[in-house]
Amino acid sequence: MMKPEYSFIQARLKSGKYTMNKLASAGLTLLMLMLLSRVLPMAHTLWDASNGEPFVTPEVWVYSYAMLISIASDAILAVLPPLSRLKQAALYAAAAYTVYYCLFIRTPEFDGMAELAAIAGVCTILVFFTGKRLFSGDSLFTPLFALIVPLICLFCL
Closest by alpha carbon to 80, among 69, 93, 70, 91? Predict the structure, then answer.
């Protein structure tokens, strides 16, 4: 009688740790992206709106596109036989390049820069891949990067 309830609790705990890991990876990615955009003198960034609203904000870049690509890559890796870390990173990179290239190929604001957006997407996803290994369920950095860092980025950077 206790076995089904125990497995349900373990499944919820495992999915909660996975969610916190993805949120912490997104917080790390957002922090790096915001710091890079403040430090590097770039005339035109993806979220630099020359006429009104930006097409893509850093939050949308990380939490919408990159996180979904990372979750989809994890789902693909779950059904494949175990792969080495290099092959996993290659799968992450291929998925990111494909999605970001297809997303920006027909966007008039990025005329001729779809490859650049795809390469930036690959770099973003590889930070997610690093965060997958970096943040564990026992670390206090996981909730810090999952909850506090995005708020700091949103209100202070």
Answer: 91
Tally of residues, the chain: 157
Burial class (CB in 10 A: 0-12, 13-18, 19+), 121: buried
What confidence tens digit (pLDDT) does each residue in 50-60 have? Answer: 555 666 788 88
In this prediction, the residues of the chain whose per-residue pLDDT falls under 50 are: 1
Q: What is the pLDDT of residue 37?
A: 81
DSSP the chain: -HHHHHHHHHHHHHHHHHHHHHHHHHHHHHHHHHHHHHHS--S--TT--SSSS-SS-HHIIIIIIIHHHHHHHHHHHHHSPP--HHHHHHHHHHHHHHHHHHHHTT-GGGTT-HHHHHHHHHHHHHHHHHHHHH--TT-THHHIIIIIHHHHHHHH-
Residue 101 CB-half CA count within 13 A = 9
Neighbours of 47 (CB within 10 A): 16
For residue 59, count CB atoms less than 10 angstroms from its CB and return exposed for 0-12, middle for 13-18, buried for 19 or more.
Answer: middle
